[in-house]
Amino acid sequence: MTRPKALEPTFVRTSALEPALLEEIWEFYRQFVRRDKDAFLDAVRQTDEVIYARARVGGPLLAFIAVKLVEIDWEGQTHGVIYNVWSAIDGNHRGTNLMQRVGFRVFLRYRLRHPLRPVHFMMTSSTYKSYLLMARNYSEYWPNRRAPTPPRERAMMDSAVAAAGLSSWDPERGVLERFGALRYLEGVVADDGEQGDPDIAFYARANPGQPEGDSLGCLAPLSLNNWAYMAYRGVRRTLRPRRAVKTA
Q1: N or C: which end of the chain has fewer CB within 10 A?
Q2: What does the DSSP assignment read for 89-123?
């Protein structure tokens, strides 16, 4: 299958979001999840920045990402955390490194303001597909199946979730509990199985409440090693033949 042209993202401060765009974001995002509309839109408004993309001017929305920047003090040093609260990409435009390009631009802006400050990427992963995005693109990330999450990284996730104003966080398991308030329509292990993949099997063990919408907290340092590994993986994706996405 011919690889689609890379989408060009548009960055908008959440405070500047127009009602029509918010409605369009909801209509796009509801393709991937069952949840309450008003609660979702209220939560989007609590983030700092929304990134979206279309294939052409006036065309349908094909990608949506929402980001919140959090700063945490750890043993006398401030750490920046780029918290990817939501992300969704049309199936035919995955594998084009959009998330990586957006992440790098957000990181670069923060790095220019704080050149010496450690910076981390965080997400609360509601699907195994989003967890694999981290497992396949970072050489160092937490949690992973090879080693327990270190105390510092665990504490940083606890602090980031608290700073973002999210409730129902279980610090012992590192999971944001949803109590059935939402359910994703793809990337659920209970629907797709583990497929013989050890990272999917690990995700299923770490987030057993996924069918009820629970999200696994994930963190990765935005270090030179991780950026180099991400670039290497991105080149491999670009050169790899692309398979068609099945639709119902």
Answers
A1: C
A2: E-GGGTTS-HHHHHHHHHHHHHHHH-TTS-EEEEE
HSE (side-chain half, CA atoms, 13 Å) at 246: 2
- The type of residue at 152 is R
Which amino acid would we find at residue 50? V
Q: What percentage of residues in the chain have a pLDDT greater than 70?
A: 95
pLDDT recorded at residue 188: 97
Give the pLDDT confidence of 28-72 residue by residue, as tens digits: 999 999 999 999 999 999 999 999 999 999 999 999 999 999 999
Angle between helices 98-113 and 224-239 (to 10 degrees): 150
Q: How long a stretch of residues is the chain? A: 248
- Which residue, among 207, 183, 184, 187, has the nearest Cα to 195 in the 3D structure? 187
Q: Report the sign of the C-alpha dihedral through residues 152, 156, 12, 114, in that order.
A: negative
The C-alpha atoms of residue 57 and residue 53 are separated, in whole angstroms, by: 10
> 244-248: long-range contacts at Cβ-Cβ below 8 A with a sequence spacing of 24 or more?
244/1, 245/91, 245/92, 245/94, 247/91
Decide which of 3 and 207 is more confident.
Answer: 207
Closest CA to 129 of 229, 52, 227, 199: 199
202, amino acid identity:
F
Domains and CATH numbers, the chain: 8-239 (3.40.630.30)
What pLDDT does residue 242 have?
53
Phi, psi (rounded to 5 degrees) for 202: -65, -45
How deeply is 33 buried, as exposed, middle or buried, from its count of CB atoms within 10 A (0-12, 13-18, 19+)? middle
